[in-house]
Design a protein that fits this description.
It comes from Methylogaea oryzae. It contains eight helices and 17 strands. It is an alpha/beta fold. β1 and β2 form a beta hairpin. The longest helix is centred in the C-terminal third of the chain and has 33 residues.
Length: about 400
């Protein structure tokens, strides 16, 4: 970061019946900042050019009617990203202020009513043009697909058009179940790894997947979708497409590992590597002209290169963060009942993890090449134990991060 970077420090909140004000103290006037409003869940993105955070940001009081929380991280070496998680749809006005010896501020007003005061001549408003692909550092409640940044006028980001969550929860008929796509690895002509006793990975993966399906079926507010439910082959891309078709909130792929050394053992949980995400983004952007429905229903083929890239990056970043979080909860549950090969979540470029808008994890349940673990993988009670650990990890995640508009969120 250059010496001339604008230091963003203290944050103060104030609220009235019609709006909440966020005042960020800065070491110098903010020369440029951009706003983008995203939906499902509602959140405001503030990108500060040549900015850097120099202290932790305080969170809003619990009774604040508008703000759930504020997060920050570096978008790249020269841009600070602030993410304001919202409790309801808002309209936004922002400007740069100076109070003499009191210093400089970036002021953001979040309006919940229909009217927004016009900016004063001394209140320069944010530019609305998003820049290059970026990364959001903290966890999302659930990365439902990003929408186009809301229409703006006079620097005011338009209303998202969504009802506040409280109103959504009152209409129980509009609520839906959380959908978990369960992917039993391999199948058909692709048996996967083999054990010394002749056990094939495809059969073990399907057996555990079916047990997981039964557990999710018993959980109110959750619904499973089996990517394959028999001994047949499903292409890797087709698996992602099927999950998207069913509007899955999570994709879980189940496998059994193998290694030349039959002493190696233990479970592992994987999410997509950064390299895998980068190559996938390039692929989607290159093919967006021929794709009718990309990021969670948002079409990219009518967007310019910058906007398409930003929308895809926002979705990928949020998806990877959620994937990492749910993978951590699954790994913790597996550690209670199984040996772990890796005690930390691993990253790899598995094709089935590359959906840009569905959190995706891959579970290597055990090493089928290890005779003792092969025996356990064939044992019904052990299969049930593995499935229950995965289920409990998934349930624990969604209890904390239920997608808006679901029965779990309403509970």
């Amino acid at each position: 970061m250059a010496d001339a970077a604008v230091q963003v420090g203290a944050l103060r909140y104030s609220a009235t019946s019609s709006y909440t004000r966020l005042v960020f103290d800065t070491s110098a006037p903010v020369s440029e900042h951009q706003l983008a409003m995203l939906r499902n869940p509602d959140r405001l993105i503030i990108d500060v050019t040549n900015g850097v955070l120099n202290s932790a940001l305080p969170q809003a009081p619990a009774n604040n009617p508008t703000v759930r929380g504020v997060r920050a991280g570096m978008r790249d070496s020269a841009h600070l990203r602030l993410v304001v998680d919202l409790k309801q749809a808002v309209k936004v006005r922002s400007y740069v202020a100076s109070e003499g010896r009191a210093g400089h501020q970036l002021v953001v007003d979040l309006y919940t009513g229909d009217s927004v005061p016009a900016p004063q001549p001394s209140e320069p408003v944010a530019r609305q043009s998003p820049r290059s692909p970026v990364a959001m550092p903290a966890s999302f409640s659930r990365p439902v697909s990003p929408e186009r940044p809301a229409p703006v006028s006079e620097g005011v980001a338009g209303s998202t058009g969504l009802k506040p969550p409280a109103k959504q929860e009152k209409d129980k008929s509009a609520l839906r179940d959380v959908v978990v796509a369960i992917d039993a690895g391999h199948g058909g002509d692709d048996p996967g790894a083999h054990g010394s006793l002749g056990t094939e990975e495809k059969h073990v993966a399907l057996a555990i997947a079916r047990r997981l399906e039964a557990m999710i079926n018993q959980q109110p507010g959750m619904r499973p979708v089996m990517i394959r439910n028999g001994d047949y082959y499903v292409g890797l891309r087709e698996r992602i497409q099927k999950a998207r078709k069913h509007k899955a909130d999570l994709f879980v792929s189940i496998h059994a590992d193998a290694y030349v050394n039959d002493d190696v053992q233990g479970s592992s949980v994987f999410t997509l590597s950064e390299k895998g995400a980068t190559s996938e983004a390039a692929k989607w952007l290159a093919e967006r002209e021929n794709a009718a429905d990309l990021v969670g229903g948002v079409k990219l083929n009518d967007k310019d290169n910058v906007l398409a890239s930003v929308l895809l990056d926002l979705s990928q970043t949020a998806t990877q963060e959620a994937s990492q979080e749910v993978a951590g909860t699954v790994l913790r549950e597996l550690s209670r009942s199984s040996n772990l090969h890796h005690r930390q979540v691993q990253r790899a470029g598995f094709a089935v993890l590359k959906s840009p808008d569905i959190p995706s994890v891959l579970v290597e349940t055990a090493f089928i090449s290890n005779p003792e673990e092969e025996r356990k993988l064939n044992d019904a009670s052990h299969q049930d134990q593995i499935a229950r650990s995965i289920f409990q990890g998934i349930r624990n995640y969604f209890v904390q991060r239920a997608p808006p508009g679901t029965h779990l969120a309403a509970q």
